[in-house]
């Protein structure tokens, strides 16, 4: 009898253990509806991620890249160089078509861009004339009417003469202009009161020349170099990058540049500064990229990121070396603040020289 009772007790314990294990397995196993909910949640998350990726803005047609000046100048060179690197490096999938719209020191091009105020497929290079031109009353449009995307380069002004010019250095030129400011005709590719004019006026004013007597010719079709080589003018005020190829060819001589000290690199290392010639003057020709005033935030973000990627590429660095440009990267927000500060500085400069009340 004891054996029977002992057997029943052991049997009961075994069954209880088995039942407990089965109960535990049931509790841990997910229900079919729970499996369905989990699968639906995972699918929804993946769909949302794919939708966000699909909705990220990118150009859907060719980008119109407006150079508000003639071929060969700083804006034209900047636009074509940016377009070349962006396309070759596959940073943008669409073609970037550079279109020249010269006139008014940039005002004609800006007016065209302003008419396409919401166009997300429109860009243009910018530099100090975006401030000089409205400050001297030649345009109602200024830097606040457009969308700053990024600053890219820092260049310097260069004052150049033909290789056979009697002016061997900047002081030779200054001495001649002190005796008679109107005896020398200076050409630039920007309008009177704009960058090529102002960078030269600022330099000779610092050297003691009566700036109001300087004869300046505006060649807004980009023919300044042609006029110099043809003997129609004696001095060409331009960007340093625009002088390099003609210096290599032995056609021109650089009298001075507006950098604080000599630069390194092929060709540019031989360009004397104004400072080393006893003229206390420097000037940075910054250049960047803008879009229309009401460009969408999504498009502005795309272009800023694309320009950042371009600026870090070896291909872009090679172009900097080629033109003697210095990297001067600023993102949209920093560039916007910089522009406001530069406007105030240039406003004061023009007042000092007597070109603005």
Description:
With 357 residues, this protein is an alpha/beta fold. The protein folds into 2 domains: 63-153 and 285-353, 3-Layer(aba) Sandwich (D-Maltodextrin-Binding Protein, domain 2); 156-284, Periplasmic binding protein-like II (D-Maltodextrin-Binding Protein, domain 2). It has helices at 2-28, 32-55, 74-88, 107-115, 129-135, 170-179, 195-206, 224-229, 240-248, 297-311, 314-323, 332-353; strands at 63-67, 96-100, 122-126, 147-162, 185-188, 215-218, 235-239, 252-257, 284-291, 326-330. The radius of gyration is 33 Å and the shape is globular. The termini are far apart. 40% of the residues are buried.
Question: What structural keywords apply?
Answer:
357 residues; BUG; D-Maltodextrin-Binding Protein, domain 2; signal; 12 helices
What's the helix and strand layout?
Elements: H1 2-28, H2 32-55, E1 63-67, H3 74-88, E2 96-100, H4 107-115, E3 122-126, H5 129-135, E4 147-162, H6 170-179, E5 185-188, H7 195-206, E6 215-218, H8 224-229, E7 235-239, H9 240-248, E8 252-257, E9 284-291, H10 297-311, H11 314-323, E10 326-330, H12 332-353
Parallel strand pairs: 1-2, 1-3, 5-6, 5-7
Antiparallel strand pairs: 3-9, 4-7, 4-8, 4-9, 4-10
